[in-house]
Design brief:
The protein has 281 residues and is α+β, with helices and mostly antiparallel strands. It has eight helices and 13 strands. Strands 1, 2, 3, 4, 5, 6, 7, 8, 9, 10, 11, 12 and 13 form a 13-stranded mixed beta sheet that branches. A hairpin with a 3-residue loop joins strand 3 and strand 4. Helix 1 crosses helix 2 and helix 2 runs antiparallel to helix 6. The longest helix has 14 residues. The protein is globular, with a radius of gyration of 18 Å. The N and C termini lie far apart (38 Å). 45% of the residues are buried.
């Protein structure tokens, strides 16, 4: 009888998760495994059937009371045989006692509800080359390294349910990632990152105090990709963010539901123009 074992994935095995996600058309970033693994080195679980990798799931712990599920994949030939649900249970056990979030694809949302998740909002993936619209205000866009890391981490915490310094430090510093901040009168008013993906590039996060600041950041992030299409996951409850995407001619191409096991965390949704990732929150 074949033996199925769930083990902690190392950084090289997390790179395999990205390959599987790309096959599912999720379009992860090419170097995501580096900062992802740093977020919680024990939070990536690989299921092996007689040493053959067949399932993946991430269960990343943030702070003392938040966690995020992602990369929930069973290889096509091994679906419907119970291996995926075993990996799911191991992931949820790793996050036991925490408020757990995930981004659920449409055909799995009913299953997540049965596991106690509730929809908070919908993430819509907008993609394309942003139209050249100039911001109306006076905004200075600079490299994220121009502000102290502690300031950047505190700003990130305003939009994310927990501190994630280990992840963030690599997210802004990984080769190929362009991390920018928006400043007004010397004050941090926006933050965004763009990175090469399996197809085009992905923007995330995109935080801004106003839609005009978001526009200034997005223009600079898009310029860093030299005309390549960009994609980002925009919360539909942020109406100015949705309108900005539409103004810039970006097209909705995919959607998933942000779901939590408890109440949605108290974050600044008005300034959250695009999520960091759908894999780790």
């Amino acid at each position: 009888m074949a033996e199925y074992e769930i083990t902690t994935a190392g950084i090289r095995e997390v790179a395999r998760f990205l390959e599987w996600a790309a096959e599912e058309q999720w379009n992860p970033g090419k170097m995501d495994h580096l900062p992802f693994h740093a977020a919680d080195p024990r939070g990536f679980l690989l299921g092996k059937l007689d040493e053959d990798p067949v399932t993946s799931v991430s269960a990343v712990r943030y702070g003392a009371d938040f966690g995020f599920i992602g990369f929930y994949i069973a290889r096509p030939a091994f679906r419907g045989q119970g291996y995926g649900i075993q990996a799911w249970r191991a992931a949820m056990q790793h996050l036991n006692g925490r408020n757990v979030g995930l981004d659920g694809v449409v055909d799995q949302q009913d299953n997540y509800r049965k596991s106690g998740f509730r929809t908070a909002w919908t993430h819509v993936r907008y993609a394309g080359v942003p139209a050249g619209e100039a911001p109306s205000g006076d905004v200075t866009v600079a490299d994220a390294g121009s502000v102290p890391f502690g300031t950047l981490a505190s700003y990130d915490r305003r939009f994310f349910p927990a501190r994630r310094d280990a992840f963030l430090s690599l997210w802004v510093g990984t080769p190929g990632h362009t991390a920018l901040v928006a400043l007004q009168d010397g004050e941090l008013k926006g933050f965004g990152v763009v990175r090469p993906a399996q197809s085009g590039a992905r923007v995330g996060p995109l935080y801004a105090d106003t839609d005009d600041i978001a526009l200034a950041l997005l223009n600079s992030l898009s310029a860093a990709e030299q005309g390549a299409p960009v994609a980002m996951y925009v919360p539909d409850v942020n109406v100015p963010a949705v309108r900005l995407m539409e103004r810039l001619g970006l097209e909705p191409t995919f959607e998933c539901a942000r779901m939590y096991t408890r109440d949605a965390p108290d974050v600044d949704m008005a300034g959250l123009f695009a999520a960091t990732t759908i894999e780790l929150g």
